[in-house]
Amino acid sequence: MPGSEFGQLQSDGTRLPPFYSPRPDARGTSHDDGDVEHGDFSLSAGNPASSNAEDDDGASQNTIPPASTPLTRPPPASLLSPAFTPPSTPGTATPSNAGAAVPRGIPVDSSIPTGGCGTKQPRLLETLPEVECIVRARIPTTTGAEMFLHLYTNNVDNKEHLAIVFGGTIRSKSLDAVRDGETEMDRLVRGAYTGRLYPGRTTSGLSANTSESQDALSANLTGEDSIQGPPLVRIHSECYTGETVWSARCDCGEQLDEGARLMSLPNNKAGGIIIYLRQEGRGIGLGEKLKAYNLQDLGSDTVEANLLLRHPADARSYGLATAMLRDLDQKEIRLLTNNPDKIRAVEGPHREIVVKERVAMVPLSWKGRGGFRAPEVEGYLKTKIEKMGHMLDMASLPR
Ligand SMILES: Nc1nc2c(ncn2[C@@H]2O[C@H](COP(=O)(O)OP(=O)(O)OP(=O)(O)O)[C@@H](O)[C@H]2O)c(=O)[nH]1
């Protein structure tokens, strides 16, 4: 960690990296999450992506996955644990937002060129990958927000892709499916239960006589817990540097935290899902991304650095995200992104998922809500806008 100019001084005297979550508003005013997209975005249908980026993006969407691994086979012992250990957990500085509105989205219709996600059509594989949620657990976070972490296996790679689920109404079909020969304890341990776990619980379903089931019943009757519209979704690609080792070259850590914060807002009754895909460095892997960083220090931008290393500008695909969202029983979503390619790609080859709205991700520092400023992240965002067609208006960057 760099020196003392970095980090927020906490009440217990320790310093936390300031990079991820919004700092509390120094003026003590409450934030209004309803203004997320106020004038900050252009919805131009014209896509300013360079020809390089266009060619490479198109190619990347068509990446053929490696040979299938049957879902029935147990995951290999070599499965790596996620490096997802953000130093600041979701929702820091949320208390002042307790009553804040759910962020407004911009209507999207990817079936028409003027629908708000550019004109590029990614070439997608005809069939979605198969995914299976093998375990789910409740994660109370340090801010009081709670989420359920779902770990998925699939038939195209050996990575542990994750769904971070906010709200109690979103469930995984593959997790809930009954497995041959399993006991009630097996179901409890792999997270295929309803309601909450407590010491001594022996059944995975809600039994009619517990006070918990009565609470659930009355919540449903009063509509307190009923689903209200499509959930907020973020499709997030792994970024070890930005999420774990405090890199100021990108805003990935801040985006992850901000997505989680918005999904945890009490007024967000529709729930939220962060699909956390293990495609580090836009799919080129951490080693190659570190080489790209060195090329950036030598004068290349993020797209040029990838191309110099003979990688596409963006080597990611989103079929796994589409399949995971379908497994979580979603059809329509509100997507937190500035990336037009992501909107079309996550919808899948047959629009298995429909993005109804895009919710813009404006860097927090641009809105005067904390965040961080650095020449590197400004270069990163500028390249996204100028070469990759991201729907973010650099002109609104405060000088
Ligand atoms: N190759 C490369 N990858 C980077 C660099 N900086 C960040 N990344 C990766 O870029 C990806 C960021 O992706 P996302 O957070 O999904 O964001 P996005 O696709 O840019 O679009 P949004 O949804 O608008 O945030 C992660 O996989 C990061 O590891 C870089 O300099 N070079």
Automatic annotation (TrEMBL):
Keyword flag Oxidoreductase: no
Biological process per Gene Ontology, one example term: riboflavin biosynthetic process
Basic and acidic residues: bias regions: 24-40
Domain of life: Eukaryota
SUPFAM superfamilies assigned: RibA-like (SSF142695)
Pathway where this protein functions: Cofactor biosynthesis; riboflavin biosynthesis
EC id: 3.5.4.25
Domain GTP cyclohydrolase II positions: 221-354
Family, as annotated: Belongs to the GTP cyclohydrolase II family.
Protein name: GTP cyclohydrolase II
